[in-house]
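Hi all, long-time lurker, first post. I run a small reading group and we've been trying to get comfortable going from sequence to structure in the token notation. Rather than ask abstract questions, I figured I'd post a concrete chain and ask someone more experienced to write out its structure so we can walk through it together at our next meeting. Sequence below, copied exactly:
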Amino acid sequence: MISDEALMLEFQGGSRPAFEELFARYRGPLFGFFQRRLNGDGRAEDLTQETFLAVIRAADHYQPRALVRTYLYGIAMNLLAAERRRRAKDAPPGKEAPEPAKRGAPDSVLWIRQALDKLNDLEREILMLREYEQLSYAEIAELLELPVNTVRSRLFRARMALKGYLEPERKTGDAAESEAAESVKLARAEGEAI
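-- Answer (accepted) --
Happy to help. Here is the structure in token form:
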């Protein structure tokens, strides 16, 4: 199997099959990258296409200083930032940009999304790049222009925070028992009202 870097250099030399192979390898992962960050918005496909258009436009300027994967995700992150700025600008004053619809998403997916939304932006991005995009610590560090040890520590903090958000709160002693009794009373009352 030929490396991504060799394919990119072949494409730079004018090889259409090399570009088609890169497109086949990265179309799905980049689509998923946008899909997850835009919560299923229809723009994910457009932004995936725009990423590859940017690669075509900049092919002459490509230098194999980094992995092609890091190069593609760098372009994708820039396009995502531009999309978020556009949405913020288009939103009415005093109101946040509308969140894309979460049609048909199972409860567990929504629960994880809500927990991810509670993380700060940088920690969420590091966690998503590592867990969803499967980038190495070095690739994330290069992409976000951070030291590798900073990536490691922020990833650890993000995982711990996410774990805390996803674990149900533990109740102890009398408080838990009285709350359980209260919920049973409410359930009976609701049943009688129906």
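A couple of things your group might point at:
The chain is about 70% helix and 0% strand.
The chain has two domains: 1-101, 106-194.
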